[in-house]
Every structure is written in C-alpha cells, then in structure tokens.
Design goal:
With 297 residues, the chain is an alpha/beta fold. It has helices at residues 3-25, 44-59, 135-139, 205-211, 231-241, 253-262, 278-282; strands at 67-68, 79-83, 94-97, 103-106, 117-118, 122-125, 145-148, 153-156, 159-166, 180-187, 190-194, 216-221, 245-251, 265-271, 274-276, 287-292. Helix 5 packs parallel to helix 6 (253-262). 45% of the residues are buried.
Length: 297
C-alpha cells in the first residue's frame, strides 16, 4: 500500500472519530430542567433539557418518566403554597396543595423537572399566552383537569375551582370570550384568588359577588403597563378585597413598596413556602405580604 493511501485512510478514521464525539456531546442522556416554551432566554443546559423533554413527550401520551414526589409533599396538616418559578422563567407559577394532597398548579411557566415531573390534579391558566402555559408540563400531566382562561366552576377531590371572566385589555368584559380570567381555589376552608394581567380600573359587581371573601390573593407587585401589568390594578384589588395575605407574583422592590403603602399592607418578608390554615389567618391583623422564593434560583 502506498504512503499516500495510508495517509488518506488515517485521515478518514480521525474524521469519523471526531464526528462520533461531537454527536455524543450534542445529545445529553436526560434533561435536568425544563426550558422555556415561551422562547425566553435560557442557558445551554436549559435548551438541551427542552429538546430532551420534547422528544420524550412525543413518544407517548403519558411519557414514562420519574415523578417528583417530594417537592409538593404536604404533611403539614395545612394548605401548602409554593412558587414553582425558576431563573429561566417569570415568577408567576404557583402550586396550592390541600391538606389531603390535591395539587393545583396556577399559570405553569418553565416548571422545573430537576427531580422528576411534578404531578398536578388541576392546572389553570389565567391568560392563554406563552408565558402562562407550559406545554411540556401539560404533556406530562394528561390526567389533570385543565382550565385555560375559561369562566367555569368544577371540583376535583377536595378542591373547588371557579373561573371568573375579566379583562386583560381594559375593554368591556365578554363573559363568553373573556380576555383574562381570575381563578378562585376553595381549599381547606380557604378562598385563594389568583390574578394575572388583569387590566381593569375596578372590579365589577358580578366579579365581587363571585370572589366573595378572599383570604389569600396572588397578584403582581410590578408595574409594566405595556404588558397590562399595572400597579394601580394591584392596589385597587387589595383595597377592594382586603385579603389577610397577599403573595406577590411578578415583583420589583420599588413597586412593591409603593403598592404596600397605598394598600396598607405590611411587609412579611420572604419564605420558601407557606403552610397556612384558617386559624392562622384569624389570628392576623390587617393584610401582610409574603414573597415566596423561586423553587430554583
């Protein structure tokens, strides 16, 4: 064999080895976290996780994946509330877990899959937009009762859910095709209301009637009028409903201080989670805000 042919064969073997190595590097074995289906900026690890999650989800209606049984485990004897946010997504995703373990996930957005896939019994989206709906999370929860921006009432196990028509644009509310929906969760004797992107100068009489006495409100402590997130709306809601607790969703410190001052809300600091009962709330005076830290910072 000539020296030239040997050189060509050696070059071919080397090129094949490099190609195999590159393919191995570009296909991680399994995802470590969920990437944002909204197209928001994310790390290379998050992007790889998205591809792996999507591939797994497409193989069957209910992918064979490890379930996370620890993150939302509730052995407190009370209602448990946790943020499901990550640094890859907005601080808008929350879980409400009844004392019996029924899981509600509100406005899922890049739910982390680090320890497996969180199982939800109920999934609600106040506004059907890319950052209020996690497609991968929905695929891994095919048995969940899903309500997406829909005025309706239903119950799953020991939790009752009511969707109330609202306006995301400031236009008159169309009860049959609303542009936003407020969700109320009745759990363990508590009434918990989730507001997101509500752009109204006031709550209507019908909304107030359906809301009733709200114990805990989740709403934005941020001012982004271009996205229909307005501090004036949060102040209006708090002054109208006067809940015992408010859990900020989207947040910035300066706006938070303005909202607390205008709505006479006491700063209750931060926590990783909230375990609360009706008796706990009865012992409180006025309204207190508690910021629940993201599940993954």
């Amino acid at each position: 064999m000539s020296r030239n042919r040997v050189s060509l064969l050696a070059a071919g073997v080397l090129a094949a080895a490099v190609l195999v190595a590159l393919q191995a590097c570009s296909n991680p074995a399994e995802p470590s976290t969920a990437a944002s289906p909204s197209g928001a900026a994310s790390s290379p690890a998050a992007t790889a996780a998205s591809s792996a999650s999507a591939a797994a989800a497409s193989e069957s209606e209910e992918p064979d994946a490890k379930r996370d049984t620890e993150t939302l485990k509730n052995d407190t004897g009370k209602t448990l509330i946790k943020s499901l946010g990550t640094k890859f997504g907005k601080h808008i995703s929350f879980a409400v877990v009844s004392s019996k373990g029924t899981v509600v996930v509100a406005d899922p957005n890049t739910i982390p899959f680090t320890h497996g896939f969180i199982k939800a019994d109920i999934i609600t989206s106040t506004f059907v937009n890319h950052d209020h709906k996690d497609s991968y999370f929905l695929q891994y929860n095919p048995d969940a009762r899903v309500s997406e921006m829909k005025p309706e009432s239903f119950a799953v196990k020991d939790v009752k859910v009511t969707g109330i028509a609202a306006s995301h644009t400031g236009d008159p509310i169309d009860a049959n095709a609303p542009t936003d929906v407020i969700y109320v969760y009745e759990v363990d004797g508590l009434r918990i209301a989730y507001f997101a992107g509500l752009d109204q100068e006031r709550l209507t009489e019908d909304q107030l009637k359906q809301l009733g006495a709200i114990d805990i409100a989740l709403l934005a402590f941020k001012d982004a009028p271009a996205w229909h997130v307005k501090k004036e709306a949060s102040i209006m809601i708090l002054n109208a409903l006067k809940p015992r607790l408010v859990l900020p969703t989207e947040f910035d410190a300066k706006t938070a201080e303005e909202i607390r001052k205008a709505a006479n809300v006491t700063d209750g600091g931060e926590a990783d989670q909230l375990a609360v009962s009706r008796e706990d709330l009865k012992a409180m005076n006025g309204t207190r805000s508690i910021f629940l830290r993201a599940l993954l910072d």
